[in-house]
Design a protein that fits this description.
The structure holds 2 protein chains of 2 kinds.
Chain A: H1 9-19, H2 28-38, H3 42-59, H4 68-75, H5 77-88, H6 95-115, H7 124-131, H8 137-163
Helix pairs in contact in A: 1-3
Chain B: E1 2-8, E2 23-29, H1 33-41, H2 45-67, H3 70-87, H4 97-119, H5 122-126, H6 140-152, H7 156-167, H8 172-179, H9 183-200, H10 202-209
Antiparallel strand pairs in B: 1-2
The chains are: A mainly alpha, B mainly alpha.
């Protein structure tokens, strides 16, 4: 069995800063080395005592418990959140949806009866162009023609590659 | 925490005298935090309350030690749990739910400290009561103020590292996740923080030796 490599006082002090004065929380290997040093070094024991006093001071610092009122407020957050969401929903009141549907129907009837003859219901091409973000039908047609050419050229190239004799 | 009571009749072949007339087993089934997080993400308020019961105390201690103000600690806790309720679906199980909560609380606390720094000059910070050198006959209250003041004047990341590891009992790896740094960086913060504290409280430590 090999003996653990020892550490000197500055290394031990560095480890105290790193891991604190509770040796049981140190990584096992480093703890063994520290214990070996502590068994022979008065200065190391003094350094450990200083670190323990510092932790004692930290432990002596009281911290207030969370109040019951805080716990109650936090526990009630889901209900408050749901209530707020319900208030922000515009159709929360029971009469509002009825009114909304009636208004929508009236508007639909009005728009339908007044502007129906003026609409070009058969110019689906123009609608597609708008949906594509291209408001000018002539541009769309040009694009379509161009893309058709590209596709044909691509097909020819591919076919050409496939049909080309291997020995050429 | 849910509790479950099972009644088990006599197993066949066992002498009734050898066992009690009935075996009532009281089992306490503890649902882990990760499962509760999934339930919260689906809008389960009871699961949310269980997480509050488990973590409010720790988060309150952490935020109080970070901010040094009870009122602000309460506000940060409230905001942290509100985020839990609203954003639980965004939790990814790479870290423990508690680590995720501490990370939220840490970020909120740091935001507050930065806002506070914008309104308080560095001269004001030096005048905080705890940063005064404690006298030999220090009373408990003064001692608390001295330690709290020494903590308060540490750079915020050193303070957070110390509070998470020393007070919250986190491992270095877990605290590193909360702070969003690697373990080596966390260890460096811890070492510098401890050295700073030792220097700031040196006079008191010498006093306590005698």
């Amino acid at each position: 069995m090999t003996r653990p490599v020892g550490i000197d006082l500055p290394q031990f002090e560095g480890l105290l800063d790193l891991h604190g004065a509770k040796l049981e929380r140190w990584p096992e290997e480093q703890r063994h080395r520290a214990e070996a040093l502590l068994s022979v070094s008065e200065a190391a024991r003094a350094a450990l005592a200083t670190a323990q006093r510092l932790e004692g001071l930290l432990d002596a610092l009281p911290v207030p418990e969370p109040s019951r009122a805080l716990a109650a407020r936090i526990a009630a957050l889901p209900q408050q959140s749901l209530r707020r969401r319900a208030r922000s929903w515009p159709f929360a009141a029971p009469a509002v949806p009825v009114f909304g549907w009636a208004a929508a129907a009236a508007l639909g009837l009005f728009v339908g009866s007044s502007s129906l003859p003026e609409l070009d219901l058969f110019s689906a091409r123009s609608d597609e162009a708008v949906l594509d973000g291209n408001p000018d039908p002539s541009d769309a047609e040009t694009d379509e023609a161009d893309s058709g050419d590209d596709w044909n050229e691509l097909s020819e190239l591919t076919l050409g590659a496939l049909l080309a004799p291997e020995d050429e | 925490m849910a509790s479950l009571t099972l009644w088990q009749p006599f197993p066949l072949g066992l002498d009734a005298g050898a066992v009690q007339e009935s075996v009532e087993v009281q089992l306490t089934v503890t649902v882990d935090d990760a499962a509760l997080m999934e339930q919260v993400a689906q809008g389960d308020a009871a699961a949310y309350r269980t997480l509050v019961e488990r973590h409010l105390r720790g988060l309150h201690g952490f935020t109080y030690r970070m901010l040094g103000s009870r009122a602000e600690a309460e506000e940060v806790c409230q905001e942290t749990f509100l985020r839990l309720w609203k954003e639980a679906s965004r939790y990814v199980a790479r870290a423990k739910p508690s680590t995720w909560l501490y990370r939220i609380a840490h970020n909120l606390a740091v935001d507050r400290l930065r806002r506070r720094r914008e309104t308080i000059s560095s001269g004001d910070i030096e005048e905080l009561p705890g940063s005064e050198r404690p006298s030999a006959g220090l009373q408990d209250k003064q001692l608390s103020e001295a330690v709290q003041g020494a903590l308060a004047t540490l750079p915020e990341r050193q303070r957070a590292a110390l509070v998470l590891v020393h007070y919250q009992g986190m491992s270095n790896a877990e605290a590193a996740v909360v702070l969003g740094v690697n373990v080596r960086a966390l260890e460096s913060l811890l070492a510098r923080g401890r050295r700073e504290l030792r220097e700031r409280l040196a006079q008191f430590q010498e006093g306590s030796e005698t």
